[in-house]
Amino acid sequence: MEWKELQTTSAAELQRRLQEQREHLRDLRFRVSQGTEKNVSAIRTTRLAISRILTRLKQLESQPTK
């Protein structure tokens, strides 16, 4: 998920994506622990996507409303 894409996304859409990414991370962790997932670097990229979304949501909260 690119930063430019997140900048044009609404807060409601960001919340939805955040929920999806957290569910995806949970599933990845289960699959890695079971041994069915070999791409452990996917956990890192998912965590990075979550942090980007959270950062953008914090920016939207701190902006004064017009």
Supply the key terms:
66 residues; elongated; mainly alpha; 3 helices
Number of helices: 3
User: Can you summarize the main beta sheet?
Assistant: none
Oligomer designation: single chain
The number of distinct β-strands equals 0
Strand content is: under 5%
- Average of pLDDT: 93
Gyration radius, rounded: 14 Å
Distance between the termini: 28 Å
Order of helices and strands: HHH
Low-confidence segments: none
Helix fraction?
over 70%
Characterize the overall form.
Answer: elongated
Instruction: Kindly name the structural category.
Output: mainly alpha
Could you explain how this protein is built, in words?
There is one protein chain. This protein is mostly helical and about 70 residues long. It has 3 helices and no strands. The protein has helices at about 5, 10-35, 40-60. Helix 2 (about 10-35) packs antiparallel against helix 3. The longest helix has 24 residues, at about 10-35. The radius of gyration is 14 Å and the shape is elongated.
Task: Describe what is shown at a glance.
The protein is an all-alpha fold and 66 residues long. Helix content is 77%, strand content 0%. The longest helix has 24 residues, at 11-34.
